[in-house]
């Protein structure tokens, strides 16, 4: 564990400034998502101020919202829902899409055709429209939001993973594994998947950004995390009336979404493989 941490610190020390800044942004939000609610000065739904949309102060660091609740406390709680729902949905979409891609590629024939056409059908539907239909039909509880966001982005991950797997499946070392009589599962796990990890990690980062923006959009429409709890998108929607006043209650969560997504994108760019020539 100590060696892994030291290697990570060493890699970040040698990394370009943009990479270190991006890693700092992403790490900050991960720490905030894990420990934020424990250090929040007020409960998530507590009314702590008689004034609405009050400014920054020593008692309320980010002011109060449209009901007089502490924006800083709600931001700490909202970060947990945004980060964990986004990361969980992105991981679930990546696992399902990659598993289906490996199965389709190594099976070929009718299985590959059926799975590919099904994924093409799903990807032809705009992600926000598909999510809105599923939320309207199934509800917006946290487990359902996780599953809906994951299902929305499985087809995109499938197409990328299948393209990678198809290129790898045509190489000699996969043909040699088949000639040795190895099963499809062993070939997928030991021969194909390890050579797909790097591009899939970059795609995972992009899916995380897409899911965060989708969750924020659903919450802005009132279909995401429900009161009294909120994610960052919900905080923007419920305080929209403070926009004309430039209230911190709406500026803080909007800036938080921007910092989280931009930091993740910068970190994804840093994951590009180095040129070995």
TrEMBL record:
Per the UniProt entry, what species is this protein from, by scientific name?
A: Novosphingobium sediminicola
Q: Report the record's Gene Ontology biological process terms.
A: transmembrane transport
List, for all copies, the residue spans of the domain called ABC transmembrane type-1. Answer: 79-268
Might you report a single GO cellular component term?
Answer: plasma membrane
> Which Pfam families is this protein grouped with?
BPD_transp_1
Q: Where in the cell is it found?
A: Cell membrane
This protein's membrane topology, according to the annotation, is: Multi-pass membrane protein
Q: Does the keyword DNA-binding apply?
A: no
- PROSITE patterns in UniProt: ABC_TM1 (PS50928)
Cross-referenced InterPro entries: BP-dependent_transpt_permease, MetI-like, MetI-like_sf
Q: Which family does it belong to?
A: Belongs to the binding-protein-dependent transport system permease family.
Which keywords label this protein?
Cell membrane, Membrane, Transmembrane, Transmembrane helix, Transport
Instruction: Give yes or no: UniProt keyword Transmembrane.
Output: yes
Protein name listed in UniProt: Peptide/nickel transport system permease protein
UniProt superkingdom: Bacteria
Q: What is its main location?
A: membrane
List where the protein spans the membrane: 21-40, 83-108, 129-154, 160-179, 200-226, 246-268
């Amino acid at each position: 564990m100590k060696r892994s941490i030291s290697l990570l610190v060493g890699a970040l020390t040698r990394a370009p400034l943009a990479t270190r800044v991006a890693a700092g942004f992403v790490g900050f939000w991960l720490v905030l998502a894990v420990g934020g609610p424990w250090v929040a000065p007020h409960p998530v739904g507590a009314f702590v101020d008689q004034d609405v949309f009050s400014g920054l102060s020593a008692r309320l660091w980010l002011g109060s919202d449209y009901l007089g609740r502490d924006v800083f406390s709600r931001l700490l709680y909202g970060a947990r829902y945004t980060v964990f729902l986004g990361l969980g949905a992105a991981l679930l979409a990546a696992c399902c899409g990659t598993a289906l891609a490996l199965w389709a590629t190594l099976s070929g024939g009718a299985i590959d055709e059926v799975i590919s056409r099904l994924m093409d059908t799903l990807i032809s539907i705009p992600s926000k429209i598909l999510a809105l239909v599923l939320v309207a039909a199934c509800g917006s509880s946290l487990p359902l939001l996780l599953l809906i966001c994951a299902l929305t982005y499985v087809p995109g991950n499938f197409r990328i993973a299948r393209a990678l797997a198809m290129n790898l499946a045509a190489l000699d070392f996969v043909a040699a594994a088949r000639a040795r009589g190895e099963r499809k599962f062993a070939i997928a796990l030991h021969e194909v998947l390890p050579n797909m990890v790097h591009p899939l990690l970059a795609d995972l980062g992009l899916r995380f950004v897409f899911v965060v923006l989708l969750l924020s959009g659903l919450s802005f429409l009132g279909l995401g995390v429900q009161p009294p709890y909120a994610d960052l998108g919900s905080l923007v929607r419920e305080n929209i009336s403070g926009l004309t006043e430039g209230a911190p209650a709406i500026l803080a969560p909007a800036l938080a979404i921007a910092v989280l997504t931009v930091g993740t994108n910068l970190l994804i760019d840093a994951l590009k493989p180095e040129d070995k020539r």
